[in-house]
């Protein structure tokens, strides 16, 4: 994987952030973490990311609201929405509003990795 590949992970569940970031870094995916939308927006305005993996339900701005704000900063950003197992419609709605795809929690990390790689490939095709 090339060095410029960078992922932003936004989720208010600290344990999930740490576990997912560790999994991704072991697979040579550079990632930054944010525990809320505002922190994610701050990171996005200071740096460039290829893919964002973001929880749908967070305090403050939810995933869809946050996605809209992030797309203002970087319109070509590929965003993967994370949603709870009972919120399938929220994931589909997210895609209608511009998300690249969605993942259901709890996550199978190998499936997540595959989805991230697909999002990265789609991002590179837009470069």
Give me the secondary-structure topology.
Elements (H helix, E strand, L loop, with lengths): L5 E5 L3 H13 L3 E5 L2 H10 L4 E5 L7 H11 L4 E7 L3 H9 L4 E5 L3 H18 L1
Helix pairs in contact: 2-3
Question: Key terms for this structure?
Answer:
Rossmann fold, alpha/beta, five-stranded parallel beta sheet, 21% strand, 127 residues
What amount of the residues lies in strands? Answer: 15-25%
Rg over C-alpha atoms, rounded to the nearest angstrom = 13 Å
Largest sheet: 5 strands, parallel
Residue stretches low in confidence (pLDDT < 50, at least 5 long) are none
- Look at the structure and give the mean pLDDT: 89
Write down the CATH class: Alpha Beta
Strand arrangement, largest sheet?
A: 2-1-3-4-5
Cα distance spanning the termini? 16 Å
Order of helices and strands: EHEHEHEHEH
In CATH terms, what is the architecture? 3-Layer(aba) Sandwich
| Count of β-strands | 5
- Helix tally equals 5
